[in-house]
Amino acid sequence: MLRHVVIILLETRTKTQYLPQSHQDTKKNVLILLPFVKLCDFVSSWHRFSTGLLVGVALILGSCNENLVEGNRETNKLPFTRLGNIPPDNDSLHAYPFRLTLSWDGGDEDGVAVGFYYRWDKHEWSYTTARTATFSFESPGKVNEHLFEVKAIDNDGGEDPLPPQRHFWTSQNLPPETELLAGPAEGSSVFSLPAPTESWKGFEFQFKGTDKDGIVTGFQYTIDDTINWKFINSNSVWITIASAGNHIFYIRAVDDAQSVDPTPIKRSFKAVLPTMNKGILVVDETRDGPGVAGAPSDAQVDSFYQRILISNGRTFDQWDISQQGSPSAQDIASYSLIIWHADDRVEQLIKPSLDLLKSYLDVGGSLWIVGWRVLPEIDDFVGAASYSYKPTDIGRVYFHLSSYDEQGALDFVGGSGLVGYPNIDVDVAKVPASFGGTLNMIGVAQPNGAETILTFRSISNSNFQGKPSAVRYLGKSYKVIVFAFPFYLMNETQSIALTAKVLSDLGR
Q: What is the second-level CATH architecture of the domain 80-171?
């Protein structure tokens, strides 16, 4: 059918010599009836003779530039969609597996189907260009009802107004199971800060999931409640807690049908916020000996550390592992410096506290650790004549050492001070006469980021001479000083002076 357009031109000034005779009346409004397809030709002619083009004409010209002949096209015909016959619609006699592969296709009479929208159970529509896909339908019950819909999209953006659908049922999906692999021990106390720092990232939980009839696609976790679950697609998570006290971490696996472990794993722990406002804590793990040379009693060792600290004007508290057991985070949270001594070569008791000490350093503590074979005990190489630290060892990560060697012979007579540290000698009166004023099983540790403060002084000028027997690491986040020899067996007067330098370095 031929379309017409009515054009009303109002009071224009014209060059009449260019107008057709029938259109030369410029004093009156002009009413023109033109076929739509002739409109552009007419407007073009009018523009040649018009000096005051109307807004309406300008709009028409703009349309003409886009070729108004397109107006003759028919309205876009919407696409159609076909859905495969598996599963059949409304098949209530069968329960299909929760994981199904569905297929579809589509076409368009006046264009092409460029993609499809699909959804199930009235969830949000999702777009795809595929014509087949495998879906995992949520199927927590023995029989689960579902509705799947798909609709084609054509190249003009038109959508199938009557998308085909399938109404079907699936059998139960077995839920996944969860296993917690790492994290704070059940009932333990752990340090926590309101936010991560350079050295403290939080505390990490590691876990894994299994699914007998599907795939584990991720995990959900929450703290203290079972409502606000957070989804992650990794096997670990770091968390921080800003409030001190008891907390519970929950974790559960999620499978490809969105089923979750109905029995989440939970881990209870106590978060401790360090205040570090009480000064020094001396932790005594030295064995209570008979009180003879080389095997001091607990009282003798306690008195030694009391005197060297009091002589430096420091107050302190003491913790005796043999009487009180290993300390917890809550026990040490208020101290800014821990002095840990293991001045006995028969028994070392530091291993149960290693995670605690690492965490204490991570949150900004300072540690001065001394002892006989204490470094081999920490990284579990007691008895080895030499050892190269692995990247994950405490000696490498926290003490910044690269290797350790031990002089098994009676050779160590003291340490020579560097970087402002005084010399120190073995106290002949504190060792058996048969030792000749020397000690054996003394280690030297090569720094890897740390700094040597005392070097091994050998009575025989052995190849241990001049090697590091004490080191310091004064980092931005924490500070550590390590003596690889029993401090109690050193000269007490020299020990007082050396302690002054240690406390100065540690800012205490």
A: Sandwich (2.60)
